[in-house]
Amino acid sequence: MKKLFFILLFACCFQVIKAQTYQINAMLTGFDNNTKFYLQNLITDKSIDSAILINGKLTMKGKIAGVSALRLCAFHKNQFYYTNLLMGAEQVNIKANLKDFPWYVKVSGSKSQDIANILNDQIKDLWKDRDSVMKVLMPLAMGKQNDSVSAITRPMIKKVQALDSAREAITDKFIVKYLNSDAGLQQLYYKKSSIKKEELDLMIGKISPTYKSSLFAKLLLSYQKVGNILKKGDQYYDFTASDLSGKKYQLSAYKGKYILIDFVETYCVPCVAASADLLSLSKKYTNELQVISFYVETDARVVKEGLDRDKPTWPAIWDGKGHESTIKMKYGATGFPTFVLISPEGKIIMHSSGFAIDDTGKGSLESAVDRLLQKTK
Description:
By secondary structure, the protein is α+β, with helices and mostly antiparallel strands.
């Protein structure tokens, strides 16, 4: 009897271990031998695995906690290639040529990805057409503007808008039909900010118990609890968070000064680039401005890695909830870095995402804050 018990126990433990393991087998052509591929978490941008392509094949294997949104990516001849995956503890097979990335990669073995493929098959040509237009449009839009350039870009912008409208209409129908699936909930989460609150609440209420604990259902439920997302012109939302030592900081303690909140991720490349602007601003406006970095992470070790690298001289805080943080959601930090500038009276006077450096070498953040603060002098 005791022997039977241990056999059953071993079998149960084996099933649990098996249920947590994923494996990706890829056959890829067109890439150089020894190209390094990374498996990244789409929500956090963290790399969770990597493998070298040898003779057109690579294998990745590891642990995974439930169905996750992932990205398989690599750099090849200074160009970035990727394809998105929706998978859990499954054995996934990928087959593609370099030219198939990102929309025409064949993925099998994941039930969640199978449903995601239904949408992808309907919109991949729209994405491809959009990418083709944007490759021509972006350099023109970023260059010097005049009537001749506008005559070229105006119809291209209309083309992009038409493609986006067609894609959004197809996606809306997909969400309704496949709401109770990881793929449907993923798309609903991505569109959440463009849906009226009453409609979104109704759709969230239709999530079945089976999916209530899934990744995107939890993110949607957290988003629902937050209420109205703050925007430029709104009064600030007060909160308390801690640094890695446990010291607590309350936002309202800095009221009376300008407050610049930097929503950041450790492995976000533009976030790293923006750190020089943050340092410059904190020195330039020592008496008028308080900089605060808020790390959208769940692992203290990852936060420490960012702190050790960037060495901020201002409060660097977090709440340990990552993308489920109500603070992050309330301030509408959907991309990184996100910057929120609050006036001494507590009004949000700037809300922006992303970071760039102009031809003179000046960062976009410092330029924007300079303009706003110098207006008040």
